[in-house]
Design brief:
Layout: H1 5-16, H2 22-37, H3 39-43, H4 47-52, H5 65-70, H6 74-89, H7 94-103, H8 113-123, H9 140-146, H10 157-172, H11 180-193, H12 209-212, H13 215-225, E1 233-240, E2 254-257, E3 283-291, H14 331-336, H15 339-354, E4 371-378, E5 381-390, H16 397-420, E6 433-440, H17 447-457, E7 459-462, H18 467-473
Parallel strand pairs: 5-6, 6-7
Antiparallel strand pairs: 1-2, 1-3, 4-5
Amino acid sequence: MMDKLAELIDQFRAEAGYPGGIRPRRDAERAELALALSRDGLDDPDAQLLRRLAGKTYGYPGAQPGYYTLLQTDDGVAKVAATFRYLLYGPGDVADRLDDCIRGEHKLPSVAEAMMVKALAVADPDRWYPNHVTTGKSGKLAVLEVLGQKPPAAPNPGALAVASNDRIRQLLDPHFPGDPGGIGEFTWWLLHHVNVPETPLKPHQIPHAGISRTGDQIRSTIKTLEDSLPEPVILYCLQKAGDPLAAPPGGRWWWAFAEEEETQHGLPPMLEKYQDRKHPPKTKCLVIAGLRRMVDGDGGRQSAPDTDDQAYTSPPRGGEKPKSRVFETDPDKIDRGTTAHKETQDALAEALRKANLKPRSPKPGDPAFDIAWRNDDVKGVAVAFIGEVKSLTDENETWQIRLAIGQVLDYVHMLDSRRKVDSLPPHWKGVHAVRGVVAVERQPTKVDHWTGLCEKLGIILTWPEKYDDTLAGTH
C-alpha cells in the first residue's frame, strides 16, 4: 500500500476535489470550537460551545447522550471543563492524561475516548488529526492496517490512541503538510474506497413492512431530496435494532442509479459481505424509491483566500457528475450544485459591488455562509451581513426558505457570540452588530408570510429584483 500512497492521494484529491472549499471550512470549524477549549474558555466555560464539540463539526464523535446530560447543569458543565483542562493542560505526558480521562479518576460518566480525542484534535492540530476513535472499522488502527502498518505496542488505551495517531501523522504529514483535516478526509476516503461499487447497482425491492416502522424519518428524507436529484435513484440503509434510521457502514448514505425493472428480494451487492460474517449484524436493509434527480456539479462551497483583493469567490458552474456513486445526502450541498443558486448568488455579489460594498466568501474563523459583506456606516455603526442563498421551485419553496432561515440564525448567533467576547476574526473586527440575509432565486409565492416571519426574526429576505432596494435600506 505504501508504494501506491502518492497515487492514492492524487486519486483522492481528484475525486473529492480536495482541498477546494473543504480545507478552509474545516479550519474555520476547528478555530470556532477551539475557543471553548482555550485556557480562558475553560475558566469560564460556554455550555453552548461545549455542546457543539459533540456535534458533526470537525469530525463526528458519535452519539454522546451522557455528555449532553452533563451539560444540562452548572455542576456538570464545571466537571466537563475540569476534565478538559486536565486533559489539555495538565501535568505529565498526554498519553497518561488521556488514559486517565478514558478510564481513570478524571473519566466523565458515560463519556468515552471519542470526546477526549476530539478535544485533543481541536486544541492541538499540530499533533492530532480528526479521527476520534482508535478501534473499530473506521478507527486509527484500521487506517494503519490499510496502510500496511502493524499496530503500535502500547501499555494502555490512552497510549495506543497517541501512538496510532502519531504514526499516521508521520506517514501522511509529508503529503498534507499542516493539514490534519486533510489527513482525516483522506483516511476516511481510503477506508471506504474499497467498498465503492465500480458498476451501477440494480434496485432491490424490500417488503414495505420494513419501511413502515420508520415512516416519519423516511418521509422527511424524501422530502429533503425529491426535488433536488436529476434522475431516479435508490437509497440503501441499514436499520439497527432499536435505531429508527441508521446509515450504512462508515456512517454514510449509499446511493446508486436505479433501473426500471425490479429484481429479487435481497441485499444490494455492496452489503452482501455482511451475510458472510460468522456473526452478521442484526440489521435489515431498507430501500427508499421514488427520488427523482441526481446532484449536478460538485456542490462544493468555495472559500476565498484571506486577502482583501479576493474577498469573494464566485461559485463554480456545471462540472461532471461525481465519479463515485456514493455521496452524502446534504440538501445544502445539493442546492449549491444548481445553476440557479449560483446565478442568484453572483447577482447579489454584483449588486453589492454596484453599491460600493465588498462581497465576501467564508474565511478561516467564519461560519459556512454563502456570501457576506460589511457596511461600516449603517446609521453610524459597522454591521456584518451574513447571507444564505437558495434556489426555489414551486415544490420545495417552503423547505428551502425554512432551511435558509435556520442556517442564517445559526451563522448570526455564532458570529455575534464571538463579537460579544471580542474574539471576531480580523476581517470582522469593529462590527457592532450581525444581521442575517436570506437571498432566494425569485419572489416567494407566500411573500407576505415569509417577509413577516423574517422581519420578526431580524432577517432580511431578498431576491434579485429586490437587491437594489435591499442594499439601499442597509446603508
